[in-house]
TrEMBL record:
<comment type="similarity">
    <text>Belongs to the GART family.</text>
</comment>
<dbReference type="InterPro" id="IPR001555">
    <property type="entry name" value="GART_AS"/>
</dbReference>
<dbReference type="GO" id="GO:0005737">
    <property type="term" value="C:cytoplasm"/>
</dbReference>
<feature type="binding site">
    <location>
        <begin position="94"/>
        <end position="97"/>
    </location>
    <ligand>
        <name>(6R)-10-formyltetrahydrofolate</name>
    </ligand>
</feature>
<comment type="pathway">
    <text>Purine metabolism; IMP biosynthesis via de novo pathway; N(2)-formyl-N(1)-(5-phospho-D-ribosyl)glycinamide from N(1)-(5-phospho-D-ribosyl)glycinamide (10-formyl THF route): step 1/1.</text>
</comment>
<dbReference type="GO" id="GO:0006189">
    <property type="term" value="P:'de novo' IMP biosynthetic process"/>
</dbReference>
<protein>
    <recommendedName>
        <fullName>Phosphoribosylglycinamide formyltransferase</fullName>
        <ecNumber>2.1.2.2</ecNumber>
    </recommendedName>
</protein>
<feature type="binding site">
    <location>
        <begin position="17"/>
        <end position="19"/>
    </location>
    <ligand>
        <name>N(1)-(5-phospho-beta-D-ribosyl)glycinamide</name>
    </ligand>
</feature>
<dbReference type="InterPro" id="IPR002376">
    <property type="entry name" value="Formyl_transf_N"/>
</dbReference>
<feature type="binding site">
    <location>
        <position position="69"/>
    </location>
    <ligand>
        <name>(6R)-10-formyltetrahydrofolate</name>
    </ligand>
</feature>
<dbReference type="Pfam" id="PF00551">
    <property type="entry name" value="Formyl_trans_N"/>
</dbReference>
<dbReference type="GO" id="GO:0004644">
    <property type="term" value="F:phosphoribosylglycinamide formyltransferase activity"/>
</dbReference>
<feature type="domain" description="Formyl transferase N-terminal">
    <location>
        <begin position="8"/>
        <end position="186"/>
    </location>
</feature>
<comment type="function">
    <text>Catalyzes the transfer of a formyl group from 10-formyltetrahydrofolate to 5-phospho-ribosyl-glycinamide (GAR), producing 5-phospho-ribosyl-N-formylglycinamide (FGAR) and tetrahydrofolate.</text>
</comment>
<feature type="site" description="Raises pKa of active site His">
    <location>
        <position position="149"/>
    </location>
</feature>
<keyword id="KW-0658">Purine biosynthesis</keyword>
<dbReference type="InterPro" id="IPR004607">
    <property type="entry name" value="GART"/>
</dbReference>
Amino acid sequence: MAERQRIRVGVLLSGRGTNLAALSEYRRRQDRAYDLVLAASNVPEARGLVVARTLGLKTWARSHRDIARAEFDRLIDAELRRHDVEVVALAGYMRLLSPEFIRGWEGRILNIHPSLLPLYKGLDTHARALAAGDMWAGCSVHLVTDALDDGPVLAQARVRIRERDDAETLAARVLEEEHRLYPKALDEFCAELRGAAPR
């Protein structure tokens, strides 16, 4: 796939950047439908920014503290557009997006959530699955809407809950599945967006 045909993806993150690394590794293994062009964060000291720089990505960071949500999102929006981003991928971005931002990128924001949506929207998903006595946990890639973790689900992966699991052990296994699921789902989404068959 020629460089100009790849969808330009901007990644928003707040933490370690493990999903960013997985997206990059998948992209480098063979020709894919997307390119990562920017990593932006609301946490200037986020480990994920170090990961991004190591990968050769442009980065942008500013703390969201002491700034209104809509104004902060306008800053991110301007940076994404300055880099000609076409699709936004949330990868551990621990901040709700403003309705204005979501409207501006409608149908072009993806998120990876650590549950089998529509179960367990929001936080503490693994502890909630264990407390409910579920047999399965997992992760979901979905389109972002202005309702929390409520957009159309594009892909899911299931993880069997083991008898001795706690929230940490379950989270670690779900994260492994996130690293497999998200790159593939993003690639297929971008291929369809560009009008090409998924690779």
